[in-house]
Design goal:
By secondary structure, this protein is mostly helical. The chain has one domain (31-155). The chain is 72% helix and 0% strand. It has helices at residues 2-26, 49-57, 64-92, 99-115, 120-133, 138-155. Helix 2 packs antiparallel against helix 3, helix 3 runs antiparallel to helix 4 (99-115) and helix 4 packs parallel to helix 6 (138-155). It is elongated, with a radius of gyration of 25 Å.
Amino acid sequence: MDRSIRLGLIIGFIVTLLLIIVVYLFKPLSPTLPNTAKPKEKPIPTETTLEKKAVLNAPAQANPVAVSNQAELIQQRDRLYQDFAAISDALSHGQQPDLRQVSQMLEQQKQLVKTGTVTADEAISYCQFLKQILPVMEHQIDQNIIELEQFKRSSI
């Protein structure tokens, strides 16, 4: 009896050790998200490289309204990306985003694509990301992707 208990303990220990090794080897790699996924407490107003290029490439007699409009569009784009990051962060903490807000963000993204502030490929990538993290909105996001692809084809 003493021998069978010892044999059972050894087999149990080996099975447990193998199970731990298998779980460790086959656990999915956690995707590393860039620091943009963390919400910022206070946005610091800085000039992006695109703003600098726009100012440098602008002719000397450039319309100040057009430059400020471009800067405003870039700020809208940055806010949109911060909102996407906030959604991702909220989901990682178990909070569900407001679906109406996500719909508005998709519309804003389409407008930014139409103005040329965001490329269609970049917008499609964000939509595919949203589709993965918000399967509830899959149909609406698919529609948005289709519209973006149509716009991409028409602008070529």
